[in-house]
Write a structure and sequence with these properties.
This protein is an alpha+beta fold. It has two domains: about 100 residues, no CATH class; about 120 residues, Cytidine Deaminase, domain 2 (3-Layer(aba) Sandwich). It contains nine helices and five strands; from the N terminus they run αααααααββαβαββ. β1 and β2 form a beta hairpin. The chain is elongated, with a radius of gyration of 23 Å.
């Protein structure tokens, strides 16, 4: 009793429910996007376009608002939700859940594509700008390597291993096997910390030194090891951890 109701979140959930297709054209998300551009739409309206339809007496916009609420109105949090979590919301089935996850993955890949577009990466900090959006939504640790030629031109990047919440096992043979196949002269290492901490563990530092020493045998320079999390990034070169 006496509970406050957020009217903004109650669009089209009353008995006088009106489908989005019956709204004034200028208020319909698709028409609004066409006439005014993406910047005129809220996150919920953009998500409603992806959902395409709602559920029973719930419009696509209302369902989109509920999904965003479940993600604390944070798109980064939305990107971390999996199919099972999304399906807990009434009105979200496999099709809608998969559509949302695919859209979030495309957004990540678009950000990640900036690394390959740039072609040349001279500093670990530049690589961090690529890896942070790519790895920030991982709920487990993952280890990536960027392979470069002697001019620091990007040849390829690859996820070497996926682990658990606190660690992942990295096989140096896999890293250098691919480096030799690509004729790479330089490597950039990166992994994430789902906990949010940016501090390298003793294992992180030990692995980095091991890989740097191994690289010398093949005349391959391990340039830096980057750790990324929600808090930002940590560069072993910038922090003087890598010797």
């Amino acid at each position: 009793m006496g509970e406050e109701v957020n009217l903004d979140m109650c669009v089209n959930v009353n008995p006088l429910y009106v489908s989005i297709r019956d709204w004034a054209p200028d208020d319909q998300p698709r028409e609004k996007l066409i006439k005014k551009g993406t910047g005129a739409l809220s996150d919920a309206e953009l998500l409603a376009i992806l959902l395409n339809n709602g559920h029973k007496q719930k419009s696509a916009l209302t369902l989109a608002q509920e999904i965003l609420q479940a993600a604390r109105n944070n798109l980064n949090e939305l990107g971390r939700l999996n199919v099972r979590q999304l399906k807990k919301l009434k009105g979200v089935g496999n099709a809608k859940a998969v559509t949302i996850i695919a859209a979030m993955e495309l957004a990540r890949r678009r950000q990640a594509g900036s690394l390959l577009e740039k072609k040349v990466i001279c500093r670990g900090a530049d690589a961090a700008l690529f890896f942070k959006p790519l790895l920030s939504d991982y709920a487990h640790e993952a280890f990536f390597v960027v392979y470069l030629n002697h001019n620091c031109r990007v040849l390829h990047y690859r996820c070497i291993s996926n682990g658990g919440m606190c660690s992942t096992i990295v096989d140096p043979k896999l890293i250098f096997k691919e480096a030799l196949e690509l004729s790479a002269s330089r490597l950039l290492l990166c992994h994430n910390h789902p906990s949010g901490s940016l501090s390298p563990s003793f294992a992180d530092i030990g692995l980095t030194r091991k890989l740097k020493e191994a690289g010398k045998l093949f005349d391959i320079d391990v340039m830096d090891h980057i750790i990324v999390s929600e808090a930002g990034y940590y560069s072993m070169v910038e922090e003087g951890t890598m010797v």
